[in-house]
Amino acid sequence: MTLQLDAPPTPPTVSAPGRKPVSGRRILLRRLTALLAVAGLLAWAVDRAVPSGGELVNRGGLALLDDLAATVLRPSLDPGFLGVVLEATATTLALALLGTAGALVIGLVGGLVLSDVAWSGALPWPVRVGRLVLRGALVAVRSVHELVWALFLVSVLGLDPLVAVLALALPFGAQSAQVFGETFDAVPDGPLRSLRAAGAKRGSALAYALLPGTAPLLLSYSFYRFECALRSAVVLGVAGVGGLGFELTVSLQSRNWGEVWTLVAALLALAGLVELWSSRVRSDVAVVTCADWSVGRDRSGGGGRSPRGLSRSTRWSLALVVPAIVAAWWWVGLSPAGLVSARTQERAGRLLGDLWPPALPEGGLRALTGAVLDTVTMAVLAMVVAVLITLVVGPWAGRPRAGRRGPADWGRRAGWGIARLLLLVLRSIPPTVWAVVALLGLFPGVLPGALALGLYTGGILGRLVAEAWETMDLTPRESLRNAGVPRVVSAVVSVGPPSANHLVTYTLYRFEICVRDTAIVGVVGAAGLGRLLSERLAAFDFPVVTGVLLASLLVSLAVEVLGRRLRRALRA
Amino acid sequence: MKPMTRRTLLLGTGATLLLSACGTGAASETRQLGISAIPDQDPELLNRLYPAVAERFADATGLKVAYRPVTDYTAVVRAFEIGDIHLAWMGGLTGVQARARVPGATAVAQRDIDADFHSLFIAHTGSGLKPFEKVDGLRGLAGHTFTYGSETSTSGRLMPQYFMRQAGLEQGELRGKPGFSGSHDATIELVAGGSFEAGAVNKQVWDATVEAGEVDLSKVAVLWRTPGYADYHWLARPDLDKTFGDGTQENVLDLLLGLDDQNAEDAKLLKLFGAKSFVRTKNSAYDRIEDVARDLGLLK
Known about the structure:
The complex is a heterodimer of chains A (572) and B (300). Chain A has helices spanning 24-49, 62-70, 79-114, 125-143, 146-157, 161-186, 190-197, 202-235, 244-253, 257-285, 290-294, 312-332, 337-340, 342-355, 364-397, 406-428, 431-441, 446-470, 475-482, 487-523, 528-538, 542-571. Chain A has 572 residues and is an all-alpha fold. Chain A has 2 domains: 95-351, MetI-like fold, CATH 1.10.3720; 365-571, MetI-like (MetI-like fold, Orthogonal Bundle). The two termini of chain A are 30 Å apart. Chain B contains 11 helices and 11 strands. In chain B, helix 3 (73-81) runs parallel beside helix 4 and helix 4 crosses helix 11. Chain B starts with 5 loop residues before the first helix and ends in a 5-residue tail after the last helix.
């Protein structure tokens, strides 16, 4: 789910040349404008989403929510069903693994092509044109949500595990290609040039000059991608892709709440273990939190790399990767033969023929604009929910720093555990499921979609921000304290601004993703472009489907550009 | 433990890749006849019914028959279109959609109840809505919340929306947007639970739910029964006989038409279908559904 369209912001250290000095008043003015813009956006969104004169909460539906809550301590423990859950868990894990592996292959190849360092000297024009086309194609590929990819791929490949693997690998690969390209370009190219000058072949020169320097970062990013792929693999269940997401959809459809709870427990256990493992490996190979990756910050330059080299657990993790991929391949019964068969080509041709040329939905441009505005409204309100969750839970979710002793420390640790668990629950349950729950208590429309996305995004945002907070440099606070400034004042003055900065950066970044994620709550009946998309898919009205996808591509790009500007205005 | 060297790692990797290459060379399995059905009810019921149907089809044709469950109506049409399934239990609308995607597909059989099928408008007893006799009574739904079944359900969406339009009730006059519950069971539960004040369901599913005592009739009541229309049917791909041998379609049809209410085993199957028998049908029986679907923008 964690796709990002934006190029990572340039680190402040290199952005200095050519920039005009800005006065303090100017900065204040910019910030005020940004603040006003945000406030205006919020007011508009609330006004648009809340039905005039109507009730917000559907009281009638609350009884069903009660039913749901009452069964939480009575999950289904039927041995037959537990077997199903176990198999589904393995399938989800296997699909996420294969999807990530595919994404990394695409990412490495694409990243090399996109990076300047891989091409020595001036580029001939066909290469430049080719790279431009590739860049554009990658942007388009990742602007389409995994779930939508899955729906298209099912039309071409049928009920085949390839659908899930490709639906994950394509958008994630496009994303990885961009990040990898930038990572390669950030490496000093001296070693590469000397190798080439000494007569090394291009391939081996690249392998020996680029890989050692970038491997820890690439590895860390890969594990981060794996976490995202796991969440997305669950979401794909709605499209009929096997695994926990599929079982969850079926159990929800039969309103078998006991089974739903068992599946949720399995989901939490799987996501929790994978995240623990991943964060261990990530902190081991390079001190890069997923917070950094999300906005493309790279700390390896700051001497953060672990000095002790790879730990035993990381070495074993790496050694296990290939056998694990093989096992996953065997478990889901993957066969690439389906990719090249004549049937596939025929169906792909037919689908493309159906999709082109794009058309406007019934109601024309006005209907489409209305859907776009609904989508933006939903994303804005979702971010409000997510930020509230972050503000309430985030401060408790940072790992307690050593130093305190006794009951105060235990209390803090208990709070930390509960906060992290809560965030894990929020982000591990797919937004499609949150939407089904939200639809019990709210009337169909923008609000349940916003609430569902907000809960899910809150789980992710809370973690990103908490991780950023827990790795924050505390030296300024200590210095202030040592200089005799009272404890509270020194804490507020030194920690406040950077914390707020983290929160704003990640909120803007997640907002961009949230806009894209509105597509999937539309599938379960919320509002906006996603709703229009699923409605037209159900009517096999492919030209309008293309029109809607183009509209969402434009919205994504616009939001990305605006987000980048806003971030810059706030940072300056 | 000795630290792992780069060479061991590379050797291990190579060996596993080699092994896996040998493993995936297995021959593809023999072709199965895939069947599926629109998931119009509780998946648990579907999972009792269709594996049994698959077994009977296998007996009748001598083929391997597999039931492929799906999670939504559109997925059945998609799977039918690309040939993952060759025979499908379609609704009126999904059948028409599938025939538009697969020219030459034929409706072969329907239940005794499907030629003259009905939807019911139901309401929560606390909604203040009262039963009525004529289609005009649907105007009373204005200002109330309302849920359909699946988006492409004939009895849970298409025909109810058609009759609402006939009564002169605009979708915008309902309170909020209409919901899409996904299936008839879900509609009944949501209306009985009070999530929505009113809803539209398939009459056969309603009758079966009432008979099984699974709905609290003090909470939900029937407002109106729609006039009849053609609904569910078995749809066969045009290449069914070519792929699985001449006579396959005929064998399946014979089995369906021969299901006998008096035979205990057949009766069990028929009861799950909510019918007494199966009868022949043809594509033209669904012409009206096709027109309505075009009108409502659900068919291109």
